[in-house]
Amino acid sequence: MSQIALPLAWQPDARDAEFLVSPSNAVAVAMLDRWATWPVRTAILAGPPRSGRSLLGRIFAARAGARVIDDAHREPEEAVFHAWNRAQETGRPLLLIADDAPPTWQVALPDLRSRLHASPTATIAPPDDALMTALFEHGFAQRRLDARADLIAWLVARVERRHASVIDAMDRLDSAALAGRRRLTIPLARETLHAVPAFTDRSDETT
Fold this sequence. Notes:
Elements: H1 26-33, E1 42-46, H2 53-64, E2 67-69, H3 77-90, E3 94-98, H4 110-117, E4 121-123, H5 129-142, H6 149-156, H7 163-180, H8 186-193
Parallel strand pairs: 1-3, 1-4, 2-3
Helix pairs in contact: 5-6, 5-7, 7-8
């Protein structure tokens, strides 16, 4: 997996270093890279909270001069409708970030619903093994924790494929290592995470 922040067409800067690209989010990144070819000036980026969707939106806003509405599914529909129309009038791209794309994102206002269906959409998928590995490596490094490759591989095989679950596991391990003044190991991880629903303890495998 490549630890690049943005499509290669965009020159990276220091702010971008935390957005990691893998096949699970590459379609979303590519959609933003090709914003000039959108059939309308508005696109939808769907994905679960803590998936990097807001960071990607901020990077896109800085790079393309775009307006971004985060959690657009929680905004008044009239406001989103007017924002969509304004983007077409001004030519300034608009990115709507939501948990889900239509039709799962249920919209009551018919005029807005038709506009959203006309907008290009990309969804950030659950993290694949490559991204799980990179998220653990990057997150532990940020916390200045020495996480060996065998521990990371062990976690990737057992932690639920959700961005939030990866972050939760790292937070728990960080706290456990600090509280016990212990280094990160597989036994510490098993002890810390065994009761966490998002963790599957395959105790019959290599420990």
